Each structure stands twice: as structure tokens, then as C-alpha cells.
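Data deposition worksheet. Section B asks for the primary sequence of the deposited chain exactly as it was used as input, without tags or linkers unless they were present during the calculation. Section C holds the resulting structure in C-alpha cell form. Section D is free text for depositor observations; keep each observation to a single sentence. Incomplete worksheets are returned to the depositor.
Section A, Depositor: J.P.
Section B:
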Amino acid sequence: MDCRRSRTNDPDQWIATCPEGSKAVCEELRDLIFRWEPDLKESVNSNMLCFSQKKRVCGISGFKNHAQLTFYRGSELPDPARLFNHGQENASIHSIDLPDGLEGLNLRALRSLLHAAVKVDTEPTQPKPPAAPREEWPMPEVLAAALKKNKAAAAFYEQLKPTYQREYKVWVGMAKQPDTIARRLEETVRALAAGKKWAQRKEG
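Section C:
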């Protein structure tokens, strides 16, 4: 998506001043969108030609060598034809890069995608799915053995929340060289015995 300042706020002027490598495709996309969803309103925002209903439904970007069609709630849209080829890692916005213009593009699928986007725009935004829990970090054997030998350190470690326990396990477990393992283990036991979290271990 082109996030530069818009070169103009006028949609017609925006089309007229598109780079030559994408101008024709942007014009075609604009015509198709208004043919399929004539009630959408047109505006320019962040140098994109945007089409809105309640909120922004989609937007066209014109780059030097290609055009791009962005759907603001793309993650909520069915895409059986797999038109989306850019930004799928984004939680909401998905795009279609068009390096070859509309040649070979499934226009029927694109029309269905646009209709679905307009319908989704009338519905409340879906909450983001909860993040997958992080895989539990295994307890390093050397740390487990050291805690067995120091009751004060072990008692404080058991009181810590799993997040804070993980910090110590990762720090010790990531060490590879014997000297590094020994040094981190010594600092860990000393800090835990003094009732300190990992971030506080070097405090006096």
C-alpha cells in the first residue's frame, strides 16, 4: 500500500496522474468497481483511490510498474479463487498485486469478492482471533538441578508467574558454552535466592 501524502484529493486527477505503468489498470479497476457496486463513494486517501460505504471497503494503488487492489477487511472475506497475493499476514487488510494488469485475473471471482466486501462492511468488525499460546520452554536440566540444591532460590522461583519463570529458563537454556552456562546459572540462583526477577538480577 502506498502511504505517501496524496498527490491530489480529486479522484479524476488521481487517475490522470497515475504512473504510466499502472494508469490503465487503475482506470479499468475503477470502472469495474462502479459497474459492480455503483453506490460506493469515491475519495482519495494516503495516495489511494478509495471506495467506501459505511467505512472504506477497498482501495486502488498505482505504482510505477503495477497496480494493487486492497480490501480493508480482506481477512474476513472468502477467497476460494485465491486472488489475494499480498499482505495475507496482516490481521485485516489483504491485497491483490496486479503486475500483469487484469490479464488472466478471474473477474467473476473478483466481483464476488467485492460484493462480499460490501456486505461485510455493513457488519460489525469481527474481533481478532486470540493469539496462540506460546509453546512452553523446557526446564533446563542444569537449572532444575541447581534449584534442588538451593531451597531459597527454588521457593522464590515457584512463586513466580510462568512468564517470569520462562525468562530464567530461556536465559539459561539458550547458553551453549560451558562457561556461559555456569555464569548464567550462578547469576540465576543468586538472583532467585535474593527474591529477584530476571530483569532485576543485576540490581544491587
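Section D:
Helices lie at 11-16, 23-36, 107-121, 141-149, 151-159, 162-173, 178-193.
The chain has two domains: 11-121, 141-200.
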